[in-house]
Amino acid sequence: MDVVVVESPAKAKTINKYLGDGYHVLASYGHVRDLSAKDGSVRPDDGFSMQWEVDARAAKHIKEIAAAVRKARRLYLATDPDREGEAISWHVYTVLDAQNALNGIDIKRVAFNEITRNAVAKAFDNPRELDQELIAAYLARRALDYLVGFTLSPVLWRKLPGSRSAGRVQSVALRLICERETEIEAFVSQEYWTVRAEFETDAGDRVTAGLTHLDGAKLDKLSLGDQAAADHAVAAIRARTFAVDQVERKQTRRHPAAPFITSTLQQEASRKLSFSAKQTMRLAQQLYEGVSIGGETVGLITYMRTDGVTMAQDAMHACRDLITADFGPNYCPEKPRFYKSKAKNAQEAHEAIRPTDVRRRPSDVQPYVSAEQLKLYTLIWKRTLASQMESALVNQVAVDIASPDRQVILRATGSVIAFDGFLKLYREGRDDGDKNDSGADGDKDDAANVLLPDLAEGEALDTKDVTPEQHFTQPPPRYTEASLVKRLEELGIGRPSTYASIISVLQDRKYVRLESRRFFPEDRGRLVTAFLASFFDRYVAYGFTADMEARLDDVSGGRLDWKQVLAEFWRDFSQSVDDIKGLRVSEVLDALDRDLGPHFFRDPGDGSDPRKCPVCDSGRLNLKLGKYGAFIGCSNYPECRHTRPLLPVRGNGDGDALAGDGGHRELGLDPATQQMVTLRKGPYGYYVQLGEASVAPAANGATDAPAAPAAKGAKASKSSKAAKAPKAPKAPKPKRASLPAKMDPEQVDLDRALALLALPRLVGSSPNTGEDIIAGLGRFGPYLKVGDTYVSLKGDDDVLTIGLNRAMELIARKPAGRTPARRLGEHPADNQPVVQRSGRYGPYVEHAGTRATIPADRDADAITLADAVALLAEKVSRAGTAAKAPKTAKAPAKTTKTTKAAKTAKTTKTSRTATKKTATSEEPDASRSDTEEPPF
After folding, report:
1. Which residue among 189, 325, 368, 539 sits deepest, i.e. has the most Cβ atoms within 10 Å of its Cβ?
2. Contact in structure between 9 and 27 (CB atoms under 8 Å)
3. Picking from 188-192, 304-308, 493-497, which range would have the lowest pLDDT averaged per residue?
4. Which of the following is catalytic: 303, 331, 479, 844?
């Protein structure tokens, strides 16, 4: 019996069917071990030795594999054909060897690009040894990412409280998003105009052309900067006659795009299917591992982590045969198409992502896959087939229309698809609304089939209509998943297989958020980027990171020694970290305030100072650091305690509820108090606030108020020589009210805010009991309350508008909870009601807030008013006796000091333990199989 090890159980099941009874296929379930999740697992001073750890989950799988191997003749390591797959095979081999499970066992490595019977059989007929160069590249990359994460993150936590952590490639991707946001904020929109004219030929045909030359000069985009310039252009056109000056005709060929690699698949799936990178890779993994068709599990696509664009010869021929059969010989080029990767760091010699059998059409697999799987398979199938189809032919026409003096020239363009070629099957997609993200085909498709009439040079044209149109320049678009992946690939940063995990980490760490398929940097992410750019600029520079990727590729190609690469990096990096450790927090704040001041303190445009404190008027607002992260506070602290959280301050139609001055939105003045009502956002969501935090009263001599006299009989302290200064009273907090979870912050106006601040409100009186029904907001959301009964408001019920009838309906529907109260009568002492209830610990009686438990040996239903009064009196009596009990004597002073010392030591120990836990709580999960770096 031979043992075969693969990563996943689904893959194991399929391969076992292909190989037959002579093989026992087991799954490792991804990586079986990883670097120990603690500082010191990579030791630069010991030749970069590493401390690996098998987690409890993986230990069970290794035990099963080891037991099978001890009875086997041969071990086949059949993990994925990429760098991570090679690393998993190496880990399995190393762990089994350490357990002496490989004695006398022949060990072979097999790799296949697709899970089909023929591909698997061919791989087992041609086994190889473990690729030591790929393993070295994995070790270098893993150690490098570990050293950056575990060395840089603690510095970040100490110097920038509230931050999560930093990683090598993740930080560069975050910098891209933050710098794009800075560009958008700094962008100043400019007005410009275009002018189009409609002409008519003698035959009655219409031609629309755009103005390109005015007063003999060629216009650029911003030449017509205002309406006056546009009006001048319109007048110049209307004052002249026009004729066809020049006609240019040419035919162009448009070629199909290469078959998918990992990054282009993620981009197209995002554009065409609105799939996230993570979702795309998950679905591709399922298609690769296969589905059951006709009683046999078959892999539908080739391996999905690749940057190679080549296809196997038999796959290309199968595509050409299918093209000829389905579309005709005109759609099949004379020779197969061969593609070359344009990626800077392409180095894995894998095939492109393609169907394992292109003759398996999407309609053929539809009954066996989910709707999402079918969409992705269809995309891959079409792109693969189109990549081998004939080019499209496009007839393009450009016509210059000029005045006799050639002072005014307009141009009309049109194009007609003469032969659609590959466009008959597939057109490369585009991110809607973002032309910068479009594929090569996207923009050209928009201009296709704009047909111009047959015009001859010198032909006179009659001017019919002249239309000026106002425009404004637009800022660069925010990154989408597709455009971010594209940009990372262009810069040579990261690996195609890791883009999905990089994007997920940024969102998981709350550094960025995805809205309307666009990335917005959170303020936490901007702070981290500003900190790294200020103090570790070299290590988040695009060129440095791309160069490091190239060096790691040289390791995998056997051109560099992996330890040499690590040593050169660590020498400079560790020195930079040591230099930063000595920074004072004030220096960090100054750097952050300098970089992010324009973001957090936006110019209001009315000449006022955006940094002026709104409470004390004399203070200056600055960035400050607290236990839970950065915030904005007044320079006059502690006299002025005005603070506000860091909030997104955006306008320009982004739809942010807080687009306004100072990170909050003013709703108007409260008519009763004449205080400003504002909408704000805190750590737990949006809320409305009445007024501002007051300036705290000064302490110790800052006011003329005399010190309060000591209480009569109070003991004087040992340090009675200098009387303690009275503490300043805390400033009263302004009134606030949270927004219900389903209330849209964009729709909150002054009336709704005042209604929220006025909660709880009286809905009415219950017709049954006469008790008041109250509507309010609690820690668990909006609710109704009648007596001791609470009902949560859900769905469309609004706490501000719900009426009495609806409230009664919801209260009546409330499922029976505790037993309703039974009124026993009025207490003889004060005529207040005495009731019997059933609580979580059993039945009890209650009067004026005092509760007495009914003994278990008594029948609760038989309790009378007299019984209840007696139980309550007994409860009051016991409570009074306990209150009069003598206090325990104080321990001697020496013992107190000892206790304090012990407590301090215990606190210190606990603090150290907590610090250690904090440092390791962000560490990588050993189960991951394709991350670029630890998910810091």
Report:
1. 539
2. yes
3. 493-497
4. 303
The CATH architecture that domain 140-187+479-586 belongs to is Orthogonal Bundle (1.10)
Measuring CA to CA, which residue among 793, 782, 786 is closest to residue 755?
Answer: 782
Greatest mean pLDDT among 1-10, 88-97, 504-513 lies in: 88-97
2 CA to centre of own chain:
45
CATH topology of domain 191-255+393-472: Topoisomerase I; domain 3 (2.70.20)
Q: Are 277 and 448 in contact (CB under 8 A)?
A: no
CB 295 within 8 Å of CB 315: no
Angle between helices 168-186 and 585-600 (to 10 degrees): 40
- Residue 747 carries which DSSP code? G
Q: What is the fold, at CATH topology level, of the domain defined by 2-130? A: Rossmann fold (3.40.50)
**What are the distances in angstroms from CA 463 to CA 150, 275, 900?**
71, 49, 96
Host H or E run for residue 484: helix 481-491
Distances in Å between the Cα of 171 and the Cα atoms of 67, 532, 533, 580, 686 are: 43, 8, 10, 18, 29
Please report the beta strands in 609-765, taking only residues with DSSP state E, as ranges in sequence order.
621-626, 629-634, 643-645, 665-669, 676-682, 685-690, 735-738, 761-765
**262-390 belongs to CATH 2.40.50.140:** no
Tell whether the model's pLDDT for residue 491 goes beyond 70: yes
Tokens 């005045």 sit on residue: 403
Q: Under a CB-based contact definition with an 8 Å cutoff, are residues 35 and 146 in contact?
A: yes
Residues 6+ apart with CB under 8 A from 441: 254, 257, 423, 427, 428
What whole-number distance in Å separates Cα of residue 330 and Cα of residue 389?
9
Nearest CA among 344, 354, 276, 281 for reference residue 313: 354
Torsions phi, psi for 113 (to 5 deg): -90, -10
Written as one letter, the residue type at 81 is P
Domain positions in the chain are 2-130, 140-187+479-586, 191-255+393-472, 262-390, 601-702+729-756, 819-881, 895-924
The crossing angle, in degrees rounded to 10, of helices 277-289 and 262-273 is: 110
**Across 280-286, average pLDDT:** 92
To the nearest 10 degrees (0 to 180), the angle between helices 168-186 and 523-535 is 110
DSSP readout, 560-579? S-HHHHHHHHHHHHHHHHHH
Cα-trace Rg, the chain: 37
Asked if 782 and 775 count as a contact pair (C-beta separation under 8 A), the reply is yes
| Whole-number Å distance between alpha carbons of 529 and 536 | 10
pLDDT surpassing 60 at residue 634: yes
